[in-house]
Amino acid sequence: MNINWYLAVSALVFCIGAAGVLVRRNPLVILLCLELMLNAANLALIAFSRMHGNGDGQVFAVIVMVVAACEVCIGLGIVVAMYRRRLPIDVDEMRELHG
Amino acid sequence: MLRTYLPAIVFVGLGTLVGAIFTMMNSWFGPKRKRTPTTFKQDPYECGLPSEVQQGFRFGISFYLIAMLFILFDIEVVFLYPVAVQLRAFGTFALIETIVFIALLVVAFVYVWRRGALEWR
Amino acid sequence: MKHEAPNIDWAGLSPVIALLGGAIVVLLAGLLRSRLVRERAVPFLAIVAFGASLGLGIWQWGEDAQVFIAKGSQATLAFDELTLMVTFIVAVAGIATVLLSWRALAPREAAHGEFYALLLTSAAGMVAMAGAQNLVTLFLGLELLSVPLYVLCATEMRRERSLESGLKYLIIGSTGSAVFLYGLALIYGATGGTDLREIATGAAGEAGGDVLLLTGIGLTIVGLGFKASVAPFHQWTPDGYEGAPTPVTAFMAVATKAAAFGAMLRLLDVGLIDAQPDWAPLLAILATITIVVGNVGALGQSSLKRLLAWSSVAQAGYLLAGVVVASSLGVSATVFYLAVYTMMNLAAFAVIVARERETPWGDDIASVAGIGVSRPALAWPLTISMLSLAGLPATAGFIGKFYLIDAAVDGGYTWLGIVIVIGSMISLAYYLRVVAAMWMRAEVAAVSATAQPRLAGADPEAERPQWELYLVAIAAGAATIFFGVIPSPLFDLATAAGRSLGLL
Predict the structure, then answer these.
(1) What DSSP line would sit under C103-155, residue for residue?
(2) What is this structure's pTM?
(3) CATH placement of domain A3-88
């Protein structure tokens, strides 16, 4: 098994996620892109775990999955709270705080 | 001496380059205020197919609340799965750990329940 | 295959158990119907939990407890002097935050139980992060610290800015976490272990100088930089600080920084110590950028919270100097400065909270104008805090900076010491502006009582001066002076923390 291909895919997914966070305006899409970044790290962890033949990376990946779900839930919660207050759901429109 | 720094310098250079590229990409591809987005861009799913959902249709807030709680309680099962597979190997210790873990989940459940988050409004 | 149960040192773990157990008790107590219980007993229980953690930490001092030892590997969590110092800082900051938010709007809007439980959980995450000797524990600690803070930022739900700062902090903080995680994954890939000792062995051997390892270190530093608000990853800091409820800002400012630097010290000085020639120049450059950006950014600010946010960026730059040199002296200097920084900032934030409730100007610099005459009990702590942040002699900030510069010079980074001095000189400009506003300007009279409508839910009790704010402000201010004149007690603690990592 050649680790490089897994790493290349993982780096690509990470970059797509990072680019998405920078470029997109909708917080929901940004949260999706954050998931991409975390899952890219998961892919790398599992590939390395296979390469080294120890389970540490897999344990790490399982924990990351749970943590990612928590983060997204908090994000969704805040977005719903903003939606209920009829605030603009667009990160470019958020200009209350500036500087 | 300088050779040991070479990877670091290459790394800094690459980092700057990637950072600069992303910043430039941001201004190239990023939303421009003047151009009005096409109707496809404003669709909930940018797949080109017209959305089936009628305008004005809305999910209630309870729907989102329950959905989020479901995700949270659902994902916790991930921790039970490896223990279940290896329970014999780990023995009593793992069993006690699992019981503690579930007890903590019950605390969360009691909290959510008493706060009225599970009631459908 | 039979596994052995890991060895858990319950006594060593007790400071974290106190925090997390406290969080559960507080959460459930917040469910009770009685208003008295919710508004009085819940904050009291939170203080008890923080106090218990502090006390148990003192009890464990010198024990060097190693918690969670699985067979054949290093403990995932070490309660050595460095971790315990971070525990003390976090517990003190936590107690102060509970006092500051006791009669604030945020816990009332978010329900008392939730607010204090989140605070306690975040504190537990900070302790875990500072003590983590394993990449998995490190990441878990980081997330346990961050996720409750995202919620705490957004707790004043009826204020747009609070929600906005919560979402911004969430997006930027999660990006930082993701970058950090990717860095950890690459370090694991390069060295084949998640344990800091295994990583150290790997980095000293064949993996040393590997591109994978270097990229991993770079990404990890970026991720921690986000948390510690190191430039150029500091952009969230002013927005996050300004939008969050002020007591939460105080906690974010001091405790997060302590945890992030604790983790940075342990990861870089234990796990990656052999790669020090690779990361030290990078960090030194980051420190310089941070000092310049922070101090210049603070110059034009009229909001006190934004000013302190930029100043915290600059302070992060000073603190980095202690990490760069990777010596026992550097670790002690960083820990000493973190403790001092906690006191100075708590004094300042207590005064800001007090003036936010008394005047309609919120956290604008106008709110403290002329308080030298009308409220000397608030003016003195803020003055001491500002002078100490600027690093004037006879304050703890001076000793702290002196110590950091000493460490930088000792480690061969004399130029970084000079940068710190220049940064402090620039910083005098904006710190003295606040001091001048307090003592030399007249109090800005309120145009009318309805100049700015009070937020719904605020009760008239909030108008009167509140003893707990004075208590925090005066205690923190007094401590700043005390450790400025007699630094040796704190100095001894910091030296012990410096020795605990096993550096030269």
Answers:
(1) TSHHHHHH-HHHHHHHHHHHHHHHHHHHHB-BHHHHHHHHHHHHHHHHHHHT-
(2) 0.87
(3) 1.10.287.3510
